[in-house]
């Protein structure tokens, strides 16, 4: 591929996309940096309830609680939703022409063009704005979320009157402050309506302290003009701190204004209330005396460092090349790196999945960081360590006298899934975390992490399995270690006994504990003592691991997803209209559970992670059995199928799966 | 036992009860007649939110809908709660002394005495009332719900000033009208607040049309003075129709006033709105020219008829004698007999379980009627037939191309359980209904019912099993008919494969269909044609029944509750504090599901219903296995254990179980 083509494939241009839905576009072009994320919405929308998009700023880990209402509530159910907060859109601009204001009457906004330069992280957009009286303005935005300083987001506006000359007034203000709202009933996008509290702070630029009501968190948000044009005036006369630009524009001539936003760290409400003066000072220091271009240069430099370490080049397939870069770009910009946050399932592009962290981090995203950015990988695992006490509490609440039971979906470490068959029951997350820790340590040899955090994570999850499972007495499970009533990766089966993947991963988890304990016994014996590890405990781990039951159908020679899985009817795929996928949006869960149908790779995940477990023939049988049953209704499915197809030398299929997977977001499939 | 002792055991006197909690007492002493039920509450409470009871009139099958909010909602979930409506308490009385009114300031009300004469159905109560200014009145109530005319409820008040002479004013009015409310502050608890609509009707007595908002039902409710005292005046001058009694009482001397209530049938809102004049006329005809004593005599006569047919005498154990009569009394007064209603799980004593009908009717209560009141039994089965179309719709919605799938809990025939693992998944209800139909037909030889309704119920449920189950391919289930992911009677296990009871009952259901089809083929061949029964279908039923898989542990020689049941850990009973029963209120369902612990008889229900299935040794093994695992957290459990204990000649145990069971309500255990 020529250099220009390679350059080209760093550009995500509007013409690359067929879907022009506003919500889709603002998500695809969202910019983030692990701490903050901003949707690329209509800059005039603000909190107007247009039928367009959902503009907003999202801060990783900044959430509020809301009470969960159950149809029928039972003991031990989570009490609260945790929902990432939707903060004011920093792209927001109010335009006033002829006494008409865009926050009072709707100005028509047409997207003319968008282009994201993934190489530097700069997003350029061009809008055509028509006032109710027919005056046309061209508005272009250049924006970036700083990769050099994760508190910073900058926006540069250029405004040009097309069919008139005259007075135009601009306002940079945020009169509204909202919690997440959604428009539809899609269960994957839950809607909450907590109100955030806002307090303007005393400064010569607009600044506010934003706090949540129930989670009691706070942060400081400020913005300032990055330039020296005296036309831009700070004004707080009416109690609403803002910048006002009173312009006299000439037809065809443009004026530009740059603004920088600084979003502080998350603190407790009490802390931020007491120390906001200091925090505001800190925030301001990141922006004061900086220009858009100096800030951008720093950020772009970091972005280029990222590409230097992480780029994947695919020759001969420009679409896939662009796609993989898009994926890498989002992966990079979504990952929390402060050890207190992780990667929300939808990145920092909005409130999808409520900004929660799942096993997606450890099993699907972490490996990329382990090999390209070990510091980030360590930060992500540190987040889990940070929630270890909460996981211990969960285990005690569940009646286990030892070990840790991690939340299936969470921000603050507490379980936030209101539907336990696809929540708490997905206990494989505990082994996933242990697996990820070992993978990290193995690749990086970060002994410091192992001793300080990693071993404890592996040990406490091993202790969980020891207590959560038990020895069977009946049938082929008799005398074997069984793990009952769990949900594996495939959420179209739930509350099953002996999910293959779960049991195999638990076995691995137990063995990891034994093996690292042996290692630490030599290097850091005090650590074992501190954690109360005894020889007897390790022997028990070994015994359980050796006794672990995994279901297998001898006649078919196939690893069985769980006890009884093969006695379910095959899902009637031929009677399932194409529009009824993903199935979970169209069929009662009990109907899905009663059939052999996979949302995503499940048993095959085990084949993937433990290549030494099976020869190529076994892998083929497993693959051939599960492939026709799998709907890939989760985006976590196709990549696994691709890798395994590759292993069984089905290269064409492998390529198709990975290509589809890479383009999932861009094609909105 | 002497006759006086026998008489005595028809009296339920306050001194028989140790629990004096207001809510408990008003439930125990509730009076009903299958159509209406009235709680024996403080007659001055009305809609005052005292911390006492929940007064109200409940009409069987008169419910409103309310939207169900789910923590996480999925396709196919029920949209609405169905909740029995709470209508104005007909016992309600307002007393005015010295300008102070009992509906404006709280008058202290002390329960002095209560006695229910179960032989006639008359409830006598004595209250001592103290006004805020210290005047004391004795108020006694005699009430009955007519067993002769189920629209009628009568109340006789006797009032006597104890420490004063002077003016006392009484009002019989119902200024409030409420849907069910609960006091529980926990907003997760089921609480509905639909407002009923009320419209006063034009008459020379107080009358109203009451309609629900979302279910669009209506009925006419009226009351009139049953006497000729000119002191009792009808008054509608202020828009609130009422009776006013302006009395001048002499210390120690009593005055009495009798009132009759007539509660019309349930109609559609439209119907009742158009025809309320006629319905009111009908209602009034039941009361006009009647006195309390003539109405009571008719009712008592019917009550005696009931005892004549249904009494159970237990000599030598007066407590149990009284208990069984109390049970019979409530059974009789709770059963809907119009073919459109059934028996709410808590009778007509309140809004517990929202007034829903469960399998309790067919499997636990119907047998009593089959043997003592076949007409009532037929009416109860007619209710199910009445909901058959809804059950067919449910089956189609669930993807089955034939058969009927009855709601687990319902009033109107639609599923109203918001938690499907203990709702829709309890599909055994379909076989329960078929079993009950056959039991009824076998005992009564009601061929008319069989042809008109019974066979269709059996056939459509057999068709359900044929489609809902499937043939297994793996393990001992290979080649056998399996029924996956269901919940049996024991709700401490859920979503299991091959629940013994369910499979055995389904097998019975299929065989019943074949056997009755063969019978009807001779007597009513056109019926088979009408229902599209083919020889091939019957052969399929037989084949499936013959192939039905039932799990059995060969080593233990015990019928296994479900696949994998015996590979669960035994519940840690020794670590379970006594206060933590019933377990479902204290432990996460997933914890219960992962253990061998039974809420109630499950597999043993099969042993009970199919005595020919096992010899006494097998029964003993089953009994001995399950008994220690069973908490009897459901009142449906001990009776089963009692009968089976009797069969294995454990007479002492049998007696203990049945005695505990009989006294469940009276001891509030």
Calculate the terminal CA-CA distance of chain A, rounded to whole Å. Answer: 28 Å
Strand content of chain A: 15-25%
- Outline of chain A: globular
Q: Regarding CATH, which class of the domain at 3-275 and 286-306 in chain A?
A: Mainly Beta
Helix coverage percent of chain A: 25-40%
Question: What attributes does this structure have?
Answer:
669 residues; Beta-galactosidase, Chain A, domain 5; ten-stranded antiparallel sheet; 18 helices
What does this structure look like?
Chains A, B: GO terms for molecular function: hydrolase activity. Chains A, B: This is Glycoside hydrolase family 65 protein. The structure is a homodimer of 669-residue chains. Chain A is an alpha+beta fold. Among the domains of chain A are: 294 residues, Glycoside hydrolase, family 65, N-terminal domain (Beta-galactosidase, Chain A, domain 5, Distorted Sandwich); 139 residues, Glycosyltransferase. Chain A contains 18 helices and 26 strands. In chain A, the strands form seven sheets. In chain A, strands 1, 9, 10, 11, 12, 14, 15, 16, 19 and 20 form a ten-stranded antiparallel beta sheet that branches. In chain A, strand 11 and strand 12 form a beta hairpin. In chain A, helix 9 runs antiparallel to helix 10 and helix 9 packs across helix 11. At the A-B interface, helix 14 of A face helix 14 of B.
């Amino acid at each position: 591929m020529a250099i220009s083509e390679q350059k080209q494939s760093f550009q995500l241009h509007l013409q690359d996309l067929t879907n022009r839905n506003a919500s889709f576009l603002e998500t695809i072009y969202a910019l983030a940096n692990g701490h903050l994320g901003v949707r690329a919405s209509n800059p005039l929308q603000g909190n107007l309830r247009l039928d367009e998009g959902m503009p907003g700023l999202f801060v990783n880990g900044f959430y509020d609680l809301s009470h969960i209402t159950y149809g029928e509530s039972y003991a031990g159910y989570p009490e609260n939703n945790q929902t990432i907060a939707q903060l004011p859109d920093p792209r927001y601009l109010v335009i006033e022409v002829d006494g008409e204001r865009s926050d009072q009457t709707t100005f028509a906004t047409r997207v003319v063009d968008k282009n994201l330069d993934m190489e530097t992280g700069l997003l350029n957009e061009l809008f055509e704005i028509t006032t109710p009286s027919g005056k046309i303005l061209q508005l272009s935005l250049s924006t970036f979320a700083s990769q050099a300083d994760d508190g910073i987001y900058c926006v540069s506006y250029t405004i040009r009157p097309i069919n008139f000359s005259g007075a135009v007034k601009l306002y940079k203000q945020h009169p509204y402050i909202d919690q997440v709202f959604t428009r539809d009933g899609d269960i994957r996008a839950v809607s909450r309506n907590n109100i955030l509290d806002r307090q303007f702070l005393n400064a010569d630029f607009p600044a506010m302290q934003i706090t949540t009501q129930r989670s009691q968190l706070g942060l400081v948000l400020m913005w300032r003009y990055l330039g020296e044009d005296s036309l831009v005036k700070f004004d707080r006369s009416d109690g609403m701190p803002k910048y006002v630009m009173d312009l006299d524009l000439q037809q065809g001539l443009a004026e530009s204004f740059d603004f920088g936003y600084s979003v502080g760290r998350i603190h407790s409400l009490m802390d931020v209330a007491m120390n906001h003066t200091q925090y505001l000072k800190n925030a301001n220091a990141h922006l004061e005396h900086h220009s858009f271009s100096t800030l951008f240069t720093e950020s772009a430099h970091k972005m280029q460092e990222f590409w230097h370490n992480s780029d994947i080049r695919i020759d001969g397939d420009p679409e896939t090349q662009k796609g993989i870069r898009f994926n890498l770009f989002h992966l990079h910009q979504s990952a929390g790196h402060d050890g207190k946050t992780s990667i929300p399932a939808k990145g920092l592009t909005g409130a999808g999945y409520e900004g929660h962290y799942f096993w997606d981090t450890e099993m699907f995203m972490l490996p990329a960081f382990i090999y390209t950015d070990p510091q980030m990988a360590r930060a992500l695992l540190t987040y889990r360590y940070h929630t270890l006490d909460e996981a211990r509490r969960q285990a005690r609440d569940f009646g286990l006298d030892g070990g840790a039971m991690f939340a299936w979906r969470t921000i603050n470490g507490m379980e936030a899934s209101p539907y336990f068959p696809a929540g708490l029951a997905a206990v494989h997350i505990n082994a996933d975390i242990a697996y990820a820790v070992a993978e990290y340590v193995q690749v990086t040899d970060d002994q410091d992490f192992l001793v300080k955090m990693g071993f404890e994570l592996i040990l406490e999850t091993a202790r969980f399995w020891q207590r959560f499972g038990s020895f069977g007495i009946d049938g082929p499970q008799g005398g074997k270690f069984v793990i009952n009533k769990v949900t594996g990766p495939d959420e179209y089966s739930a509350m099953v006994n002996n999910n293959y993947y779960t049991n195999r991963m638990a076995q691995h988890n137990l063995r990891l504990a034994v093996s690292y304990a042996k290692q630490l016994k030599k290097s850091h014996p005090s650590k074992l003592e501190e954690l109360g590890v005894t020889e007897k405990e390790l022997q028990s781990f070994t015994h359980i691991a050796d006794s672990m039951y995994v279901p297998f159908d001898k006649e078919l020679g196939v690893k069985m997803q769980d006890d009884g899985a093969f006695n379910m009817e095959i899902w009637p795929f031929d009677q399932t209209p194409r529009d009824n996928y993903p199935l979970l949006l169209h069929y009662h869960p009990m109907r899905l559970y009663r059939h052999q149908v996979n949302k995503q790779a499940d048993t095959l995940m085990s084949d993937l992670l433990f290549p030494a477990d099976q020869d190529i023939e076994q892998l083929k049988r497993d693959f051939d059995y599960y492939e026709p049953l799998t709907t890939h209704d989760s985006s976590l499915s196709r990549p696994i199928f691709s890798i395994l197809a590759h292993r069984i030398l089905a290269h064409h299929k492998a390529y198709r799966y990975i290509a589809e997977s890479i383009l999932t977001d861009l094609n909105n499939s």
